[in-house]
Amino acid sequence: MEKRTEIGEVGEFGLINHIASKFTQKQDWTDLGIGDDTAVLDPKGNKVVTTTELFIEGVHFDLGYTPLQHLGFKVVSVVLSDIAAMNAIPAQITIGLGLSNRFSVESVDALYEGIQLACEEYKVDLVGGDTTSSPQGLIISMTATGVVEADKLVQRGTAKPNDVLCVTGDLGAALMGLHSLEREKQVFLANPDMKPELEGKSYVVLRQLKPMARFDMIHEFRDVGVVPTSMIDCSDGLASEIIHLCNASGLGARIFEKNIPIDDETYLAATEFNVSPLTAALNGGEDYELVFTVSQEDFPKVEKIADVTAIGYMTNIGNERVMVMKSDAIVDLTAPGFGKQ
Amino acid sequence: MEKRTEIGEVGEFGLINHIASKFTQKQDWTDLGIGDDTAVLDPKGNKVVTTTELFIEGVHFDLGYTPLQHLGFKVVSVVLSDIAAMNAIPAQITIGLGLSNRFSVESVDALYEGIQLACEEYKVDLVGGDTTSSPQGLIISMTATGVVEADKLVQRGTAKPNDVLCVTGDLGAALMGLHSLEREKQVFLANPDMKPELEGKSYVVLRQLKPMARFDMIHEFRDVGVVPTSMIDCSDGLASEIIHLCNASGLGARIFEKNIPIDDETYLAATEFNVSPLTAALNGGEDYELVFTVSQEDFPKVEKIADVTAIGYMTNIGNERVMVMKSDAIVDLTAPGFGKQ
């Protein structure tokens, strides 16, 4: 039987000390990490970007199929993805943790294992937090700060007409991963002796359980000497993000169905689940790719970056958010939460 | 009947726009507030301090006697108090909000009214957040950033032996406020027609419902040209905070019962509730006063500040955390969560 240590046995201060002992501060930006009233960051003349997200069990994640290590990694990726979307470099994260009495010291350790792996992957420091009890389930609030040179900061609303609209990676996979995991959960609930059937789903499942914030792209942009003219991360699906870019810039956008990058495994899974692969890409969400624009001048430099796809361009027709289908038909882009734009 | 608008009617983006429209960015530090992937802060060459707290209904607050406006104000005070404890100036806050379907747009408005009032009081900008549904109750995560000149930053562990140990304001009132409110709640539950009996409790109730982060003191320190040698805010009770200062500095501390500032109303309420006023001050918590040390040289300048009381001094006996009683007896300071030190 696995060891189970009640959090009450070590106490709040004991738990914090236990966690803090596993994290070493590595970043040049961090003057002070865990252990004082606040963390201290030295941005060395740069701007500081901040973002926060709240993750609630039963709303944002299902521990029925999400290992705590993966969850720890994922919450860091999700919040850092917003830092990437500003073309910034991540520096520090702080965490707020609400734990019901279902959670032991060992389960908190598992969560922090994933957080620690993410800290190493993204080269950020965990610099503080707040641990408390929760009447029900697991609550995680995650805040991140990053730094960016003033002339490299990229906002949502600063594209120009005819700028090339690009995305990184491929889209729709995370939703197909979610469908795969949900189906396996149902199968398991119906018959706990059944083996999970995730063959041919390894890519989409990984995209759901362990998404990556695309700082590799942020470094590529610096390497090729390009600053995107606008950028957003793809958390709610491509259509929603394009509408955000259009709303913020007062411009329109025109994208081409044939250019939207969708992985083969996503196609196959979508077919299996009777979902249109295109809908998965446009409205699936949780892919955490970057959606950005570059000037036509800069496009040749960006085009050389592996994993960047040009999908369309910005137009000066303020209310245009359309997709040209393979059939040449033109359809409006729509996203839940916005209604029809 | 009061108007009730379901959050589903306006949607997440609608709610965010509704809230954002009420907040204007006022701080010189804020380059970018709500509306992009992150907020942007220009620290203008200063260090940046960050802190986060998680507040969960039923654990940290009881909406049975806490008006949402007061709660909004309080959560900002609580998180900013940590910024004050670093001798820093507050700059920005971000909020994560988890709302069960019990909460309407109007109740979210009431919460934000209090947050807005706090933003004006403390001259900070609300620059971002995340709003989501919660399966049960209200969840608030609050993160704050502040700025501080490198030579004014004050940590916990930097006191020297013989430094004078001081506190601002008075202690124990917030706990007595909590007892008063809890009693009224029980009376109300037993008989909803009973009028609340909070006469003679206005100060302690206000200290519980609407605590203030002591930035007035931070400005006084700058005015008199003093940088405390160490500092912490008083969230868990004086004894706990002194133990933190001692642990962090490797020093001991000796305080005097006769010097501990306790308001008359706190005394009276404590007597009524059969609580020792001294215990309320030492272990009550939630007063959000500052506990700090200054060098003997600087003490005359600090002594002149109204609302500062010298309560003892730091010693070079590493394991000494004691209080000299009015009877001249010497007792060890203890705090829950630490065990006996």
The gist of it:
The structure is a homodimer of 341-residue chains. Helices cover 35% and strands 26% of the residues of chain A.
Topology:
Two copies of one chain form a homodimer.
Chain A: H1 7-20, E1 30-32, E2 39-41, E3 47-56, H2 68-84, E4 89-99, H3 105-122, E5 125-133, E6 138-148, E7 164-168, H4 173-190, H5 202-209, H6 215-224, E8 230-234, H7 238-249, E9 252-256, H8 264-272, H9 277-283, E10 289-294, H10 299-303, E11 308-315, E12 321-324, E13 330-332, E14 334-335, E15 339-340
Parallel strand pairs in A: 4-5, 9-12
Antiparallel strand pairs in A: 1-2, 3-6, 4-6, 7-10, 7-11, 8-10, 9-11, 12-13, 14-15
What does the model show?
Chains A, B: Mg(2+) 2 binds at residue 82. Chains A, B: This is Thiamine-monophosphate kinase. Chains A, B: Mg(2+) 4 binds at residues 37, 51, 82. The structure is a homodimer of 341-residue chains. Chain A is an alpha+beta fold and 341 residues long. Chain A folds into two domains: 7-152, PurM-like, N-terminal domain (60s Ribosomal Protein L30, Chain: A, 2-Layer Sandwich); 164-340, Phosphoribosyl-aminoimidazole Synthetase, Chain A, domain 2 (Alpha-Beta Complex). Helices cover 35% and strands 26% of the residues of chain A. The first copy, chain A, has ten helices and 15 strands. The first copy, chain A, has helices at residues 7-20, 68-84, 105-122, 173-190, 202-209, 215-224, 238-249, 264-272, 277-283, 299-303, and strands spanning 30-32, 39-41, 47-56, 89-99, 125-133, 138-148, 164-168, 230-234, 252-256, 289-294, 308-315, 321-324, 330-332, 334-335, 339-340. In chain A, strands 8-10-7-11-9-12-13 form a seven-stranded mixed β-sheet, with helices on both faces. In chain A, strands 3-6-4-5 form a four-stranded mixed β-sheet. Chain A has a two-stranded antiparallel sheet with strand order 1-2. In chain A, β14 (334-335) and β15 form a beta hairpin. In chain A, α2 runs parallel beside α3 and α4 (173-190) packs across α8. The longest helix of chain A has 18 residues, at 105-122. The radius of gyration of chain A is 21 Å and the shape is globular. The model of chain A has no long low-confidence stretch (mean pLDDT 93).
